[in-house]
Backbone:
């Protein structure tokens, strides 16, 4: 009687099962990140990243560890944001993976005396590694596709400075406008559809995934 790995069919089944387990583990990290970030579950958020992970956002570029600390400070200051996490596309190669996940970022803040909602659609572009047997994020770079800014009160009218609005790419200019008005330093040149930054990001991730180790 053959065991699971004693013949070609068994080995194929085992490899397929391992891939399913890897995909499920990666998907769980992607989902955990969103809820942990928004609900202030900071230990769980830290556990989503490798020790040397990096994070890019409209308001921060640096280590994931510092990103978590800055997120804690923002939460204590009353910043209110939510991340809707959608489906993930996962490309696996051994102990590495490139993962792209649909997302919607929602931020509520005050702008010129009016409460407003900024909504941004895009995707997370992640590099994952199996770290001591556990899948974790090594690098996260959002790709910002489109956004909008709306007053919470539908009777209110927003008046935006067109020059300030135009300083940032179309994919995240309304989000950046709001964040800059509440004191954030905006990251320039983040990936957006058809941008050079996106081409470079995808090429770099493909090369990283193809490397051994």
Residues:
């Amino acid at each position: 009687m053959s065991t699971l790995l004693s013949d070609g069919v068994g080995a194929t089944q085992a490899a397929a099962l391992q891939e399913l387990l890897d995909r499920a583990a990666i998907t769980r990290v992607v989902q955990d990140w969103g809820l942990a970030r928004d609900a202030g579950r900071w230990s769980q958020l830290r556990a989503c990243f490798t020790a040397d992970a990096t994070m890019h956002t409209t308001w921060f570029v640096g280590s994931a560890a510092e990103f978590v600390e800055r997120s804690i400070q923002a939460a204590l200051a009353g910043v209110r944001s939510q991340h809707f996490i959608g489906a993930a596309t996962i490309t696996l190669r051994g102990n590495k993976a490139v993962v792209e996940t649909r997302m919607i970022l929602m931020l509520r803040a005050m702008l010129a005396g009016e409460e407003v909602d900024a909504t941004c659609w895009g995707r997370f572009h992640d590099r994952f590694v199996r770290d001591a047997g556990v899948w974790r994020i090594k690098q996260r770079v959002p790709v910002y596709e489109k956004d909008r800014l709306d007053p919470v009160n539908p009777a209110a009218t927003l008046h935006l400075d067109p020059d300030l609005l135009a300083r940032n790419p179309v994919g995240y200019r309304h989000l950046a406008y709001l964040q800059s008005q509440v004191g954030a330093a905006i990251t320039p040149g983040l990936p957006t559809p058809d941008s050079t930054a996106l081409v470079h990001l995808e090429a770099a991730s493909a090369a990283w995934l193809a490397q051994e180790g």
About this structure: The longest helix spans residues 8-39. The CA atoms of residues 40 and 89 lie 26 Å apart.
